Amino acid sequence: MKDHPIWRFDNQMPAGREFEIYHATNTTPQPTIYQSHHYYELYFILRGAIRVIVEDLDVHPVLGEALIYPPQCMHRVMHTDPTQPYERFYIYLSRDFLASISTEEYSFVEALDRLTQGKRYCLRPGEEAVLKLVPMADEIIEAAKDQSPAGRLANRCRMVIYLLHLLQLLEKSTAPAAETPASRMSDLIGYINQNAARELSLDHLEEVFCISKYALLHEFKDHTGMSIYQYVLTRRILLAQQLLQQGVKPRQACMQSGFTDYTSFYRAFKARTGKSPAQYGRSTPE
Known about the structure:
Blueprint: E1 19-26, E2 40-47, E3 50-54, E4 57-59, E5 66-69, E6 75-79, E7 86-93, H1 95-100, H2 108-115, E8 122-123, H3 127-143, H4 149-171, E9 180-181, H5 184-194, H6 202-209, H7 213-224, H8 228-245, H9 250-256, H10 262-273, H11 277-283
Antiparallel strand pairs: 1-7, 2-5, 2-7, 3-4, 3-6, 4-9, 5-8
Helix pairs in contact: 2-4, 3-4, 8-9, 8-10, 8-11
C-alpha cells in the first residue's frame, strides 16, 4: 500500500493567490471525490442536475441557489444526469484577501462565517438574482487577462464591489428545506468528524454502526469517492491544521489529532498541505 494516500487536488488555488473566478460548462462531467480546500468557495449552478455531499448533508442545488464552502469543509459534486450540460460559476476567496479588504465596520470573513453557521451551506437568492450575477462575473474573468499593475488593481476593485453585492444578496436569502442528512453514511461521517482523534479502526466502526466491514468500505467509497482510511487521515490532518493555527506545537498536534507516530504524521501532513507542520504553524497569521 502506498504511504498516506493524501493528495493535493489539481483545482486548488495556489498559495498566495487572493481570488479566482470561473464560468465553466462541461458536456461530459468528470467524477469528483470528497475534498476540502484552504479558502472559501462560492458556487452557483446555472444548468445541470447534480447532487452535492457537503460534510454530512445531502443537497441537490438548482438554478437560483448558492453553495458556500468554508475553508476545510468537505464536499463532493456528483452528476445525477450526465446527459445534461453542466454549467456553473464559482469563486475562490482566500481568508487573507477577505481580511485585507475588510474594515472595522464590515468584515467579509465574519459575514461568510455567519452565513454558514449551523451547517447552512446552501442558500436560495432566486433565479433572477443569480442570473444577474453572471455578466459581472464574466466581466471580472475577461478583465483578468490584463496583468498590468493597473489592470490587476482595477480587477481587484471590481471583485470587492462584486463581493459586497453578492454577500448582501446572500444575507437576505433563505435556506432550502431540502438540506437533510443523506444516509447512514452521513451518520458515519459525522461520527468520524467528532471522533477523529480517537480509535477509528474498521473493527471499531463495524461495532458502533452494526454494519459489516465489507458494507462499510463499499458504501463509503460510493458515497464519497474515497476510502474510509483516506477520509480518516484527511480529517485528522484538518484537525492538526486547526491545532497548529491555534499555536499548538507540531508534536502535540500530532498526538491530539489521532496520530501515534510523528514520522507518519509529518509525511501525511506535508503531502496534504505542501508544508511541514512546523512551517505551517509559522505561516499562520497572529
